[in-house]
C-alpha cells in the first residue's frame, strides 16, 4: 500500500493535475468508478489507483486518496489514462473557437456525442479537454469523442477542400435561422468564445452564418446554444 505523497507514482498523479504535464505525458486523470468503466469500455490504456482493497489496481491509503481528490466528496479510484491518437473526421464536426469555461466545453462534448457530432476540434486557447471540470461535465462521454486540438484557420481550409460546409454562429441580419438551414452530409458547426463570439478570421471562412431564434433575450450560453443546434441537426 502506498501511504506517502513522496512516492514517485503519487508525484506523477499530482503533476497530471496540470495541463503542462498532461500534454507532456499524453495522459490525464479520471476519478470514480463511472469514468473508469467508460474508459475501459472504449479500450483506453490506464493505470488504476484505489483505496478499496477489494478492487483491482495499485492500493493507496484513504488519507492519500482524499488528498489527491479534486472534489469535496473523495472517490475511491483514480485512473491515469493514456490519450488516444485522433481518428478520421466524422461527417458532422463541432468546432470550438476559444471557448474558455471547462464546464461549457464538457457539456458541449456530452451533447456532441449524443447528437452525432463525434469529432470535436478545439482551438489552442479553448479550455483543456482533460481538465477535471471538463471531464466531469462530459459524464463519461469524453471517451466516445474524437478530440482534436489544433489551429482553426488551416483546419477549416482543409475541411472545405474535403467537402465540408462551415456554419458559424452569429447575430445579425446576414445570419439564417438554424431551422431554415438545409444541413448537408458533411458539415462543421463553429461556436465562439463566451464573451467575444467567433473570431472575425474564422467567421470570414464560414459558408453560412446561423442563429437560434429567441424571445426577449439576445443570446444563449454557448453550451446551451451548441446543444440546441446539434439536436436540431443531429444525424
Automatic annotation (TrEMBL):
List UniProt keywords, sorted A-Z: Methyltransferase, Transferase
Query: Molecular function terms in GO for this entry?
Result: methyltransferase activity
Question: Which chain regions cross the lipid bilayer?
Answer: none
**SUPFAM superfamilies in alphabetical order:** alpha/beta knot, L30e-like
Q: Which CDD domains match?
A: SpoU-like_rRNA-MTase (cd18095)
Every tRNA/rRNA methyltransferase SpoU type domain range: 93-231
A Pfam family it matches: SpoU_methylase
Name the family the entry cites.
Belongs to the class IV-like SAM-binding methyltransferase superfamily. RNA methyltransferase TrmH family.
Q: What's this protein's name?
A: RNA methyltransferase
Q: What is the lineage of its organism?
A: Bacteria, Bacillati, Mycoplasmatota, Mollicutes, Acholeplasmatales
Amino acid at each position: 500500500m502506498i501511504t506517502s505523497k513522496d512516492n514517485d507514482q503519487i508525484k506523477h498523479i499530482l503533476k497530471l493535475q496540470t495541463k503542462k504535464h498532461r500534454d507532456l505525458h499524453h495522459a490525464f486523470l479520471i476519478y470514480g468508478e463511472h469514468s473508469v468503466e467508460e474508459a475501459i469500455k472504449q479500450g483506453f490504456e490506464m493505470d488504476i489507483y484505489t483505496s478499496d482493497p477489494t478492487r483491482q489496481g495499485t492500493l493507496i491509503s484513504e488519507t492519500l486518496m482524499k488528498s489527491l481528490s479534486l472534489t469535496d466528496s473523495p472517490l475511491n479510484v483514480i485512473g491515469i489514462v493514456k490519450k488516444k491518437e485522433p481518428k478520421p473526421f466524422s461527417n458532422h464536426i463541432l468546432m470550438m473557437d476559444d471557448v474558455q469555461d471547462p464546464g461549457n466545453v464538457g457539456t458541449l462534448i456530452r451533447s456532441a456525442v449524443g447528437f452525432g457530432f463525434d469529432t470535436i476540434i478545439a482551438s489552442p486557447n479553448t479550455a483543456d479537454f482533460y481538465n477535471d471540470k471538463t471531464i466531469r461535465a462530459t459524464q463519461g462521454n469524453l471517451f466516445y469523442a474524437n478530440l482534436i486540438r489544433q489551429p482553426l484557420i488551416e483546419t477549416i481550409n482543409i475541411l472545405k477542400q474535403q467537402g465540408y460546409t462551415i456554419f458559424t454562429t452569429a447575430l445579425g441580419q446576414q445570419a439564417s435561422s438554424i431551422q431554415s438551414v438545409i444541413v448537408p452530409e458533411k458539415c462543421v458547426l463553429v461556436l465562439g468564445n463566451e464573451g467575444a463570439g467567433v473570431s472575425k478570421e474564422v467567421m470570414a471562412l464560414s459558408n453560412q452564418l446561423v442563429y437560434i431564434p429567441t424571445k426577449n433575450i439576445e443570446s444563449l450560453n454557448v453550451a446551451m446554444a451548441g446543444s440546441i443546434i446539434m439536436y436540431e441537426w443531429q444525424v
